[in-house]
Each structure stands twice: as structure tokens, then as C-alpha cells.
Amino acid sequence: MALREIASELAAAQRLSNRTVQAHIGRAMQIVDDLPVTLAAWGSGALTRAHVRAIADVVSTLPEERSAEFDAIAASLGPQLSPGRLRARLAAVAEKLQPTTLSERHRRGRETRCVRIVTGVDGMSDLIATLPTVLAVGIYDRLTQQSRSLIDAREQGAGAVLCGSGGGSGGGVGAVGADGADSTAEGIPGDDERTTDQIRADILTDLLLTTAPSLDPTRADDGAGGLGAIRARVQV
Questions:
Q1: What mean pLDDT is reported for the chain?
Q2: Dmax over Cα atoms in the chain, in whole Å?
Q3: Nearest-angstrom CA–CA distance, 147 and 125
Q4: Which pLDDT belongs to residue 226?
Q5: Per-residue model confidence (pLDDT) at position 180
Q6: How does DSSP classify residue 223?
Q7: Own/partner pairs for 138-143, CB < 8 Å, 24+ apart?
Q8: 121, 92 in Cβ contact below 8 A?
């Protein structure tokens, strides 16, 4: 309670959020308690704030009983390396100091997978999924490939429109669609100027809102099961 009150007073004075100030206080306590050698090196000018931030970030991945050994190694390596190179080197050091294997830690880490939403401004929000890295990278790569394929089709269609603009009846590629917009390729409006990021987001939205999961225990045949029949609900 006392820490929250202090954070609240500092936040008001510095015009920061309480959460931001609490994070700063937590980081300071971590450096003082877990990284005394690093703190001394910082005080003497051997390390910069960026070095200390990198050291503190990496030490948080280790159990408390390994902090002292890591602190000594980090403080000795820091003056020789840039903050970026130091972070990479310390990641390897931390891996060697881990009392468990990467596979064991990954099995524990999988238990933290989740999906959450962070409400933003202007009617926008962040949908955040915590997943195993291989799956997260695979999802992002597939979305990227799909968005690039759509952009390629859009550009090829636009080229066909330019080549055929010298005459003809206007049918086929480049013809005006039912909605009045030029169609550069099948299903792609002629005025589509979305960026790769925007298309990735649109494809992800379409997949999540309109398709059924492949692992559906309620499905009895090749058709959609109960999960696929569920529709999104939004309370306004």
C-alpha cells in the first residue's frame, strides 16, 4: 500500500501513469537487490543506463539463486560491449546458468498461452495472442504471404487495365463491377490501396470471424460442427 501511495504521488508530480511509475520503482528495486555489482559499475561510469537496462531484462529470466553469478559476469562484460551486443551475449550466458533445459521451460511457458484485448482510442483495439514462438511466427508468415499474393494480384490487374485502356468494350479485367468500382482482379476492387499491414489485419479478422477450427469435437462428419456455427457478439 505504501508503495502504491508513493507511486501515485510521483506519478502526479511527473505527469506519468501510476503503472509506469510502479514499473520504474520495480526496476530500481530489482537493480539494487539483484544486481549490486552492476549498480556499482553504473555508479562509477563503467556502464550506461542502456547497459543496465539490458542486464536487468536478461536477469529477470533467471531464478533468484543465479542472480549473483550473472551479476558479476554481466558487470565484467558490459564495458567491453555495446548495449545491443551485451544483451545478445548475456542471453547466451543466462541460458548456461539456467537450472532447467529449454524444453522444460518451454513446456512451462506453454501454460501461459492466452488471448487478450487492450482497448485503444478512436474505436481501435489491440488483440494480443501469447503463443509458442514457432506458431506465432508461422501465423505471421502465412498472413504475410497471403497479403503479398493479394497485392501481386492487385498490381497485375492494374497492369492489365493499363494495357487494355486503349479501346474495347471495357469487359473483362478492369471492367466496372456491380458496386461501381473498377475491378483490377477478381474480387479485388480497383481502388484498393491497403498496405501490407492493413491486409494482414483484414485477413486475420476474416479468418477468425468466418471460419471454423479444424479441431472441433462437436463435428460428426465433414461439415461444420458446433464451434463453426458460433457467431461473434459485440455489446455496444
A1: 83
A2: 80
A3: 21
A4: 73
A5: 41
A6: S
A7: 140/200, 143/200, 143/203, 143/204
A8: no
Which 3 state secondary structure label does DSSP give 126?
A: strand
Rounded CA-CA distance 218/9 in Å is 54
Measured in degrees and rounded to the nearest 5, phi and psi for residue 45 equal: 95, 0
pLDDT interval class at 112 (50, 70, 90): very high
For the chain, the structural domain boundaries read 2-110, 131-209
Tell me phi and psi for residue 166, to 5 degrees.
-75, -15
Contact 184, 161 (CB under 8 A): yes
What is the C-alpha to C-alpha distance for residues 160 and 157, in angstroms, rounded to an integer? 5
Torsional sign, CA 58, 63, 69, 72: positive
Q: Is this prediction's pTM over 0.90?
A: no
pLDDT at res. 175: 35
Q: Show the cell assigned to 109.
A: 511457458
Residue 188 in 3-state DSSP? strand
Question: Can you tell me the distance from the alpha carbon of 208 to that of 188, in angstroms, rounded to the nearest whole number?
Answer: 20
For residue 235, give Cα distances in angstroms to 153, 202, 231, 232. 37, 21, 13, 10
